[in-house]
User: Fold these one by one.
Assistant:
Number 1:
Amino acid sequence: MAELKIETTVNGRRIARRVDPSQRVLDFLRDDLHLTGTKEGCGAGECGTCSVFVDGVLVKSCLLPVAKVAGKTIDTIEGLAVSGEMSAVQKAFHKAGASQCGYCIPGMVMAATAALRLNPDADREEIKERLGGNICRCTGYQKIFDAVEMARDFLNGKLSATAFDELDAEDGKYIGVNVRRIDAPSKVTGALRYAGDMVLPNMLHVQVLRSPHPHARIVSIDVTDAEGLPGVEGIVTSVDVPGQDGFGVFVSDQPVMARDKVRYVGEPVVAIAAESLAQARRAIAKVRVEYEMLPAVFDPDEAMKEGAPIVHDYAPDNIVKHIPIRKGDIEAGFAQADLIVEQTYETQQVEHAYLETEAGLAYVDHDGVVTVHSPSQNITHHRHMLARILNLPINKVRMIMSPVGGGFGGKEDMIYQGMLALLTMKTRRPVRLVFTREESIATTAKRHPSRTSYKMGLTKDGRILASQVRIVYDGGAYGMSTEGVIRKGAILGGGPYNIPNIQIDTYGVYTNNTPSGAFRSFGSLQSQFATESHLDICAERLGIDPFELRLTNAMRKGDATHTKQPLKSSAMSDVLEAARTASRWEHGAPNIRGATRSDLAGEGTRPSCTLSPRAVAETPAPKLQHEKGAA
Amino acid sequence: MLSCDTYLSPGSLDDALAAVAASDGRFRFVAGATDLLPWAREGRAGDVHVPLLVDISGIPDLRTIEPRDGRIWIGAATPFQRFLDHPELIRLMPGMPDCAVWFADNQIRESATIGGNLVNASPSGDGIPPLLTANATIELAALRDGAIRRRRVSLVDFIKGPGQTEAEHDEILLGVECDTLEGYGGAFEKVGHRRSLVIAVVCLSAVVRLDPSGTRFEDVRVAIGGVGPVARRMTDVEQRLIGQPITAELLRACLVGCEQFVMSRTRQEYRKLVAPGFVARGLANAIERAGGSPDACGIAKEIANG
């Protein structure tokens, strides 16, 4: 490798370095200059967490070979807050509450800064377009756009600096007062270190070999060639697990790495720690695994059939869990009904798509405590599981929760921390693993796909007499949070409606798909989608207004839920009434309106999603000198 | 991950060609790098080691924008953003600003080059339809028998299929020469999953010149991309319109048969609905920008709105 000599100015400081020519500007900033405020979210130019200025022009540093910045000026997020004072854009992000997990925020702040430099009078639509290359998963963008508008108005002299100040709590009460987030300054300045930003002396880099097959027996694993490669310091497989190998939230069915067989595409098989990321990747490519294919099953209804391929020996029926709820007599209810509606609903797998991919850093400390930093949403549970897996007393295992760059349930399961613990114990050196975006999407848990069969009996005036609900959730290859998800699905399966006769059955089923796990709403989204779609169909068939149908059946104070929980309060009718008023709802069944309905458009209605490009002529991007304290 | 042993940034065409001539053939040219780096990732090419990367984006010939023989020369390393902020390009290439504003995002437009878009030869490459409507000619250079061989190829002949071009491995695309279309109105229509960073499901370029009264087509050029292996000019549509007064009947008639251009392997039905809609909308926008009379604009808009 011919090293490349680079001279560049970074945040006003002249820098001369010899660099690896394979580096991207992103790697140069993060690895060589330790400027970790610039993040890697995708490595493919799609997310904007790595945006930096090069000669005053905003670019994505993951798409820029390092040689391209020779002789140029780079400004990163760290350069915006000159001598500790945040820029106007940063202050506005702080004030507006524009940061949540914070992982996208350095890039957002850079893009907002660029937008206002290019057009100090940009309106909200133009701001949206100019920030189009930056993705946020938490905020829904509104607060980010609010912040950019606030910064614009301040820079144009329309707002005073006091606009960024925190409002005083009224009579010492903070509820209902717009309080600035305590953690926002660390996020808007890029100072906050996520797991992938952390380094330790003598740290090794981990890469994982994953299964290319959905269901196969592991005949042999040969790591001879990988072991001999330069830089390789440790290799682990399931044989290296000293304790009881298995984790999961409800059932410990998942080995740290595939044991005897693989059950989904992407399941870890071998993990390697090496001096550099490139060396670890080269070593992974040298591992040879021999597989013997097994028949696989990809549909949960198929998996429940007699004779289907068995994913786990302990569950020959492939059922992770079945949750039944019984109340009253549904047959009697259906017999009295004027209308019976039956329908099937399906929902698909969904990826959490947090901007921070999974990452972790592990080491063994001087007291022999195995320590893992990771953005885990459940560290105490992970600690207990890991102690059992490592066969260590609980006081020899420590889990530290690093800042979570978006979780949404996707970081509840302990899918990689075990590998890090094994590798640091084996090598006695700190080890770090950062998932690529592709790895994160392909191998981590998803929202459960579902198939719901709904049968509902109603009277002519819209009272629900009986509901029969059967939901089959595809749990994928391992149990993870499935039991909890389908329990929630069952408890909420009938919807928030008073129904005298109800029968609910939810099933979590093993298949050879990517495991399903926790995801916002935890199983109830699937059943609510079915219930509310079903009620709209029933409203149409009965000729009843959908709001009326729901109000007729809504649970009220004093009622009990389907699982006999007494309700001391219920806001449901109030919420429905408020929604009805706010939407200026035109009364009537869903099918009575044509093109003439009166409640569309009008005051307070958002215009439809138009995608017109902004008027096209622009002034060239200004060549900016390194600015002191400017936007 | 893309890795290399040597990354060169030659300052001249001679140096660039000499560097690849001295290599063992295992090299790649780099311009904006915005397609190259995502290509070397899991799910696509995976980890790729190229011993020699030759960055041609700094070669002055590839950065030139100038009139040439009554046409305009655009160096291959011109970033897409220049179509939005370079006064000469905006004046002479009215089909491009609308394309550029839809291209990737603000940041990638500063790096991604017009030449890269052409050699990448994606069926959905945004830059290709507007360059087809500008009758673009490609110029290539390579070292042959110790001397630089330059050759010119029409864009139509240059792109042979998805990812396939006329360029040989050691040939450098120097730039494109285009018709100057001053006074034309240009439009670019594109649909995808979101506003930014999207690969077109269908994209279309329309450029139109009208008579002084703004009621008659003097010239019409339309090209469609994303609907088959290569983007194509819609010559049937053009021939029906050239020289004709703008009427609703004429515009309606020219939409008939547009769906025949759809030869994609996927989403045929959807694309067949979009294609005539884009022709109608592209023409309406181009007519308006070409100074169409209020009547002509109204008629075209009405057709475009179905």
Number 2:
Amino acid sequence: MDMRSAMRTLDRGTLRHIALVCLADALVGASFGAIAVSGGLPAWVPVAMSLLVFAGGSQFAAVGVALAGGGPIAAVVTGLVLNARLLPFGFAVADVLGGGWRAKLLGAHVLTDESAAFTLLQRDPKARRAAFWICGVALFVVWNIAVLLGALAGGAIGDTDALGLDAAFPAVLLALVLPSLADRSVRNPAVAGAAVAVAATPFLPAGLPVLLALLALVPAARAALRRTPARTSGSEAEPQREAEQEHEPRSERRPEPLAEAR
Amino acid sequence: MPLFAILLLAAGTYGFRLAGPVLRDRLHLSEGLERLLSTATAVLLIALVATAALTQARGFAGWARPAGVLVAGVLVLRRAPFPLVVVAAAGTTAVLRLCGVA
């Protein structure tokens, strides 16, 4: 997608939000590079991880396992469990990556918590697309530069916890997701899911508790499945959803409402 | 952290990311399931917020961090500007730590 037209699509407020998220993540990225190098890893390790993995939480976790003397497989498994949430995020933002393979292959790599959250905030299909790409690409560039600088600075960067930066990441996500909680059908499972995740944290390996939060969706999922046979063409109520799928020719939509492989 | 481990983690992570965009074209999801997917995103993100705010290495993260996130939540509800929200969260946590609150 053309970045300049994407910038015009989004309002200034959203662009400012994205810039601020980039700034916050830059500080986290720099601390990641510094922690990895001052822990004794060669500088190319955090740099290569940031370019190729590009998922902050799993990078910290994998490096943490490695620095604690864990094996490389343990580090990989920890990172992968943490990143499993990207799978449902991918389905949720798939509409913004419609079109050619190039968009899918490139866009998938810049899918993060932040780009998913910014996309979730937008309703209009064009704005969703713009939010995803601007946030995703900007974060990728900023994150990698920051990690490189942090790795070069090494031990010169002090304790980022003293700056309260560990509170910035949850605060940023909260600010992005809170508006969607105005809807009770979202708020109830979100609150229940968060409670499940926190309660499970002492007992499960990192990453799994967050996935367990999806259990809170079971009632809504059953309702959705039960409702579907009746709603073959009942989409008039939500014109926006309809518009999001405009890349799919209408005639191709089958009457069978359930997920179905072609 | 050898190169093969980084490549393995990168490949698996990319697979998680790519599956949705690729499979989504081949699946016809009903309205209800579509809505469920965006609800699932919100549920996962809020769970991530809660665990990141409250826990560290399977234990309690201490009071300073959740206090900062709580301040952020209140400011968001009062429609404070986004930069203020983030700065207030980090600032609250930093000041509490400076005062000796873990």
